[in-house]
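Quick log. Single chain, no ligands specified.
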Amino acid sequence: MEPLPPAAQPLRLVPKPNPQIFAKYKKADANLWVNLFKIEFKKDLLIYQYPYKLTLVEKESDEKVKKRIYYAARKDLINIYGPNFQSGDSIYGLNFIQDRKDVTFDIIDKGEKISYVMTLQPCAKKINLSVTDASRETEIEKMAIECIMKDIYSSNRNLELWKNTIVDISEQKDIKSIENTIQFTPGYKTAYMKTEIGPFLVVSIKNKIMNPQTILDEFKLFGFSTTAKKEEIRNYYCDKVFKTTYSSKPNIIFDIDFERNPKNSTINKDNKTITLMEYYESCHEKTIQDETQPLIVVGRNEKNKTYFIPELCHMLGLGDKASDHKLMQNMATITKLEPKKVVEKLNKFVNLSQNDDHKNTPEKDSAKQKAEKYGFSVAMSTNKAKGIIMKDTDLIIRGKGKVFKVEKAINLTTWLFVYQQRNYHDAESLYNTMVKASKGLGIRVNEPEWIEMSTNDPKDWTNQVNAYMNRKKYQFVLFLLFDKFEKCYAPLKIDSLVNKGYFSQVVKVSSLKKNLMSVCSKILYQINSKLGGYSYLVRFDKEITDKKLMIVGIDFSHVPRKGTGVAMVSTINKEFTEFFNSEQIILEEKREQLEYSVSKFLEQAVNEYFKNKMY
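-> predicted structure:
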């Protein structure tokens, strides 16, 4: 284990599991790096609360409306109240203002300018962030500290704020493979943590990926001359995230409007109707090259819709490029770091709070000057904590080497093999090698029913599979895809996992070119696990297996303005190899059901555990 840096400060954390209870499983003590940095206040740091009211807002309790209006007024508010944030019916700012203030600002709604007035009352309350107060609203304190940290770090020449992530544009680089290129930007997230030994700044690495191609360039690769192509573009891009070249704020695509373009769409600016082309020229100093390109729509409600120009937008995230194995390998050389390198990166980032370089002009404060004004400092190195290294876990494996017999085999007796007509010989070779590999794994593989496809349309593929499924029950469907048709992957998986609920495995033809026997063994291990088999057992002590223990895992994915998908799984036998699972989609307006869903699942899981009679 790497030695700790000498400047690291000791930190008392409660380890889990408790080493006293699990002493018999302890192998050795360990010093751990912890991504926590001690916050110190050199003087009182005050933040002030200003209750406010809005005019022209129909639903004053609607938090989404308030957030949208707050961000529209934020620049004006900064000039008066300094760095600030909104929570409920109040603005919290770092400047003390004794008088009532009326802030007037404009929002463009459906091409029309609407004026709003935000009336802020005199200071109602002051909060001293440098004084630890257990009774204080932790959320307000947290938001205040994070607001200050963003203000300090955004003063650095090379740092930008992309929503809640601080990115270092000086280390931005392109990562390439033969087929794809992505733009990689190192980023960091900060959070505030209050503990019994004082406040800490939590820093984690949060990198950002962007497609260097504009969205318009991507549209052109699709082609959008036909209705079918336009619909394909809509389906592909809806709910994906993008960023413009003139703003760091990410946006979510709601739709693509092929009727509008920069030339025929107008906006009201200073009581004058101008085209979008003119608007971008005057407000963003951007000259639009393609006058006829469609527009990106953001916002579901008609009155909240905003239109963006694709040639000024880039997609965020990997998207389909995640299936590019070589690209992922190249990216891993940058993102997969040894602990020592992670510590070095975190320390380097935290030290930027003391950077004296000015971002724009000497008249504006540097990060160091802002930190000194606030009387706010962060420890310049990571802390350390005492931990334990657990004894190695024993695995019960039936054999030696990379290929071994599975502990529980599910034989493939009735299954479908779907392939492209041009890949007839590849499909035959894959099946024959699977049969050979299966003997070493202890899995029997019968000949499948074959479906040969002559089209590249995933709808044709799923329709054929569903026609077979309607006549007979199959254990599994194996899809063999030519590499250029990898866009079929998502529709095939959606039909399998979401629409119809059958097990499937997608294999790319290119993966069969080398080490075919090894590839087929891995495919069979995966198929066996999906069907309920398992490759090996973990050797647990009798005191654990006799306690009727259940391991429960719960995760969720939230799509803004749509809802939350909750996935839950639990073990139902003493070896932790049999599982019960459930999933649920909770609509946005029924978010309070999440707690009920989890409690209901736990009740069902316990019933399944005892029903299984394998405990």
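Confidence is low (pLDDT under 50) at residues 1-16, 57-61.
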